[in-house]
């Protein structure tokens, strides 16, 4: 037991230091898994983990259905990368939160899910039941029939993230419901140990957010059209990121770079954070979004690079150079995250964030006390004034990322069109 605790502590420390995902940090600390090591099994369901919630739900349902497919290829088939930046200001708790989009159609999770399944040639049923009781019965019937389902629970209401009440209704990400018992539902949220949530909490969480209220997608695993799906996904990625939108395409990074230094705009950071208060929370939300240690899998440029390497062999295209470039861009995002939330100042915040994530993945639960400590420390950091001198450096880093991604997407577009 002592050895296991020491291993967990070392993994958490590395996650906090590097921003790496649990799987990557564990590999560096404990070495690669043995070839004979198999995923944990719960009631016949194999818990494979995953890197990004949206691509992981499809991959894990297909793999549990006997389909040999990788998460990077599923991610590419869905259109790969996206870009988006929104700064929300909430008066009720005096907080500022950054919402960053890194996946194609990041603002439309159900559309992305259904588009990706369609491209892969996977049949699926969709149900959007209005009433909570009917929605609960539908989910129960599908699970009793042995069919894994994709649901979209609100993160606060689902409980296992132990979020503060101020985040009630802020949304969530797709997870798999794969079986139930008399009072609970078993979920796959990239966890590697069993995760059971009381049924009434699942029902409440599914009904909370109006835009995807009680969403239920039931894929039927079967042979996938991988090559066609990947080619269509690459074209979708290149077209989408070549658009002029400064909210939902690459110009969002240029807009963000300029907004950080804009002293006149109401949304300019010199005005929003004039007294430095609230900046720590905003920077933590940026770090969580950009680094794989967060809830959504990070900036995803590394996942896309892995998909490009697999697509090169599948399609016979010379995509290796682009894969290397997107790994370099992934490093640029890591540099930005480090500048935004440096470990020297915010080590404790980073360590607690990593502890919550590590516990959920490795143990199927995150300790409520650890989460409470995280949010208390975050609130205290938000109340303290912060030096704004870092804005110029952050702006320059974003401008570099924008230029690099724009050039890489232009190369991808030319290659796919050829």
TrEMBL record:
<protein>
    <recommendedName>
        <fullName>DUF4872 domain-containing protein</fullName>
    </recommendedName>
</protein>
<dbReference type="InterPro" id="IPR026935">
    <property type="entry name" value="BtrH_N"/>
</dbReference>
<feature type="domain" description="DUF4872">
    <location>
        <begin position="214"/>
        <end position="353"/>
    </location>
</feature>
<feature type="domain" description="Butirosin biosynthesis protein H N-terminal">
    <location>
        <begin position="52"/>
        <end position="189"/>
    </location>
</feature>
<dbReference type="Pfam" id="PF16169">
    <property type="entry name" value="DUF4872"/>
</dbReference>
<dbReference type="Pfam" id="PF14399">
    <property type="entry name" value="BtrH_N"/>
</dbReference>
<feature type="region of interest" description="Disordered">
    <location>
        <begin position="21"/>
        <end position="40"/>
    </location>
</feature>
<dbReference type="InterPro" id="IPR032369">
    <property type="entry name" value="DUF4872"/>
</dbReference>
């Amino acid at each position: 037991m002592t050895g296991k605790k020491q291993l967990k502590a070392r993994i958490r420390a590395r996650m906090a230091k590097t921003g790496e995902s649990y799987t990557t940090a564990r590999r560096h600390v404990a070495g690669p898994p043995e070839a004979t090591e198999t995923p944990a099994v719960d009631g016949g369901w194999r818990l494979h983990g995953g890197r990004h919630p949206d691509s992981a739900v499809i991959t894990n349902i297909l793999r549990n259905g006997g389909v040999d497919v990788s998460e990077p290829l599923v991610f590419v088939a869905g259109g790969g990368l996206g870009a988006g930046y929104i700064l929300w200001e909430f008066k009720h708790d005096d907080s500022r939160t950054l919402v960053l989009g890194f996946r194609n159609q990041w603002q439309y999770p159900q559309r992305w899910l259904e588009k990706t399944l369609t491209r892969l040639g996977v049949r699926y049923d969709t149900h959007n039941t209005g009433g909570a009781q009917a929605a609960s019965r539908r989910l129960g019937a599908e699970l009793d029939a042995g069919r894994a389902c994709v649901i979209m629970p609100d993160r606060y209401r689902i409980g296992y993230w132990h979020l503060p009440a101020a985040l009630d209704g802020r949304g969530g990400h797709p997870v798999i419901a794969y079986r139930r018992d008399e009072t609970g539902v078993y979920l796959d949220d990239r966890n590697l140990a069993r995760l059971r949530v009381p049924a009434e909490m699942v029902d409440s969480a599914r009904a909370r957010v109006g835009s995807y209220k009680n969403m239920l997608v039931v894929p039927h695993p079967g042979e996938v059209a991988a090559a066609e799906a990947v080619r269509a996904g690459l074209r979708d990625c290149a077209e989408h990121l070549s658009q002029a939108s400064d909210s939902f395409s690459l110009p969002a990074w240029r807009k963000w770079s300029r907004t950080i230094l804009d002293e006149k705009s109401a949304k300019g950071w010199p005005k929003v954070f004039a007294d430095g208060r609230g900046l720590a929370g905003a920077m933590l939300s940026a770090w969580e979004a950009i680094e794989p240690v967060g809830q959504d899998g990070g900036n995803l440029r590394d996942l896309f690079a892995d998909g490009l390497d697999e697509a090169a062999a599948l399609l016979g295209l010379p995509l290796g150079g682009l894969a290397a470039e997107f790994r370099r861009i992934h490093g640029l995002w890591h540099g930005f995250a480090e500048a935004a939330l440096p470990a020297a100042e915010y080590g404790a915040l980073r360590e607690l964030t990593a502890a919550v994530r590590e516990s959920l993945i490795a143990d199927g639960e995150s300790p409520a006390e650890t989460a409470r400590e995280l949010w208390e420390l975050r609130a205290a950091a938000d109340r303290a004034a912060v030096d704004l001198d870092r804005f110029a450096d952050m702006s320059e880093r974003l401008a570099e990322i924008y230029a690099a991604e724009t050039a890489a997407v232009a190369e991808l577009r030319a290659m796919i069109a050829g």
